[in-house]
Amino acid sequence: MKRPKFSETKATQLAVRLIQLADGSITYLKLMKLMYLCDRTALIKLGAPITFDTYILMKYGPVLNTTLALINAGHPPNELSHWDIYIEAVDAHNMRLRKEIIDQDFLSEAEHNIIESVFEKYGNLNQWELVKLLHDELPELINPDDLVLPIDYRDILVAENMAQAEIEGIEEELAEAAQIDAVFS
Question: Is the full-model pTM beyond 0.85?
């Protein structure tokens, strides 16, 4: 399925908001799980994820693939990505805000509501509780047995027992948005 391109700006804003809600610092693993839950919820409720990232399933659960690459990139100070302007590594497992305020808000009110709702529901859990909860409760997640497996948007929609016509409608809208992205890229 064609999909719009990944939005580093929206992924950064999503991460910044989650880190703010977590009092300014968070583990990579917990951030990744909360971001997945936000994207997943937006896909189900709004028909499109927040970040348009690709998802993979790894040993400790779902990962936003391009976002993970941003976390692991470690750009030099003179080549900071949008992500690096706002978020920095504290150590091998933790992140914190480098800069609090994002100049422009690219998230919709509905996306902000989803972020707040997801954090309210899951933010009090530690990273390992989140890993277990996601494996236990999300039907699209299977045991990857040390493999890295893709998770498609369709996998999530099917796992949520969405009607085929509704899934096809979401896929058509995402394909149209991808075409618009291609024209303006």
Answer: yes
